[in-house]
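Box S2. Input/output pair 1.
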Amino acid sequence: MPSTLPLGDPAPADGALPPQAAAGAAGRGFSLYAHIPFCAVRCGYCDFNTYTAKELGGGASQDAYAATAASEVRFAASALDASGVPRRPLSTVFFGGGTPTLLPAEDLATILTTAVEEWGLEPGAEVTTEANPDSVTPESLVTLAAAGFTRVSFGMQSAVPHVLRVLDRTHTPSRVPEAVRWAREAGLDVSLDLIYGTPGESLDDWRASLDAALACEPDHVSAYALIVEEGTKLAAQIRRGQVLDVDDDDHAEKYELADAVLADAGFSWYEVSNWARGDAGSVRYACRHNLAYWNGGDWWGIGPGAHSHVGGVRWWNVKHPTAYAARLGEGTSPAAGRETLDDETRHVERVLLQIRLASGLPVAELGPESRSEVAGLIAEGLVEGAAALRGRLVLTLRGRLLADAVVRRLLA
């Protein structure tokens, strides 16, 4: 079942934000996340807030979802206005899920058009949708491009049939290059998402998936270690001994292989799990929407269970599509709770997120005790010495494998 929402303070029905949210907003970028909570099949490893038609039940409709989401866009614009947050054009938009492309392309276009009507788009704005390879057609991708989408991120996960079966993925490997070709013909940039460490996946299987992904000539590749979440089908299978558990050493070996293969193909890492085509430091093909998250930017998340952040104020929507639609139908905020981040929490989050970026964490962000750890991190080969001398902590390959340990040292 989908993961639980965090605890927090009550969120006001009118969506009003405290003065902190408006302070300095004119100098910050603004992004939109649109959560599309529908899937044809629930994958065995997934604990996202998504629903199949069977799980959805009565009171919520995929057919009505675009209108409901568009109404939250309008609610968001009014709430920000009333809170004194200046209107800013959107620098990035990201449709995630779930499987956004289970909705008709025209519905996704409706949501995007409503957002553009309210806020506009910065010149060259990045507009991405996630998609399964078997949830698009040449025609739907053309419709998305015409509506203003610039990028599609396909959930490839693996090129090996037995690995896809363990993950409960519905597409066949041959569908991926076909979908990528259609996206290219529509004029869209392409990212491919991969998962490594699936029970039963050999190192040769993982290499085959990397080779197949690169054969599609994508602009961007994300590679995530499989995490077994409690409450998922996969967790139950492992507990019953039906499949092997994941292995940290296996994950490390596969990460090192991914980094080497992608680097040889002209990709540079810019975040621990993400590589973009081009030289290090270039962000032409990096996911700018995710960079906005990692750099603590402002965004409004629409959809059930979606999280938002503006100026150190974070809130999250009710989870179920029925409750979400009911709130908006009454003209009230769909937020279930919120929190105002204090300086210490914001510092911890900056360290957690910016240390994962190739651009690095400014040493100046650290207090004296944390700065005293830097020499040891260099000596242990966890951060780059030359970059540290220039004032930024940049993880080495070994440091990327041990990023959590580096963070613990810096926050101790």
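Box S3. Input/output pair 2.
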Amino acid sequence: MTEPFQGAKVMLFFGARLLVMRRDDKPGIPWPGFLDWPGGGREGDESPEACVLRETQEEIGLLLCPADLCWKSPYHRPGWLSWFFAAHLPAARANDIRFGNEGQGWMLIPPEAFLHDAKAIPHFRTMLDFYLGSCRPIAAEA
């Protein structure tokens, strides 16, 4: 049985660059216009891995497999649990991205740029900083 959680996000690296998406700038959504990562809300009783893999395919048209997910961490806030993942793909796989209908667009940036961008979701910056400090170095541009 999977512990109840609200959703999952993935830090998706293509070579040494991080994929970010600009959220829609609509009233009523969390973090309008901010930089985001693939992922979203849980459906039914899916696992955190199934959630992030489904959302990634829906949002950027990229089919990942569970083995692509090299790291995961829960993120707890009062009354809220979500999961963060990381995946490292060759730079050329960015050619497979097919952006969906959520958000204003996507780009690949150095992860350090995300850490210092005022329009990056603050707790995502925290998770990326934790990941970069605790895990293997990012692979060189392939």
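Caption for Box S3: Residues 7-134 form a domain with the Nucleoside Triphosphate Pyrophosphohydrolase fold (CATH 3.90.79.10). Residues 18 and 113 are 9 Å apart (CA to CA).
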